[in-house]
Specification:
Strand content: under 5%
Distance between the termini: 71 Å
Structural class: mainly alpha
Order of helices and strands: HH
Number of helices: 2
Radius of gyration: 34 Å
Largest sheet: none
Length: about 90
């Protein structure tokens, strides 16, 4: 069952990729028509949407400097200190 679902998912992804890249081009060859319906009414909608105001402004931002000491650097320093201590004790 998992293999079948995985195969379907892979096929779907390949088709989506082929359509998105233009490898497959689908053109509508016939217009669609609504069926004949007597009576009835289409629904009406009203939507209140917000207003978006997009602006830009120039600002100077101070960027912090980050100093990272990795564990490898600490070990290298520790081994260097140990070697110096070993040399001084001889």
């Amino acid at each position: 069952m998992r293999a079948a679902l995985a195969a379907i998912a892979i096929i779907a992804l390949v088709l989506i990729g082929a359509i998105a890249t233009g490898f497959i081009d689908i053109d509508q060859t016939q217009k669609a028509r609504l069926p004949e319906v007597k009576g009835g009414q289409l629904p009406a909608y009203e939507a209140d949407v917000g207003d978006i105001d997009v602006r830009t402004k120039n600002t100077t931002v101070e960027v912090p400097v980050i100093d990272i000491d990795s564990a490898r650097d600490d070990r290298a320093e520790d081994s260097g200190n140990r070697a110096a201590k070993d040399d001084s004790s001889r």
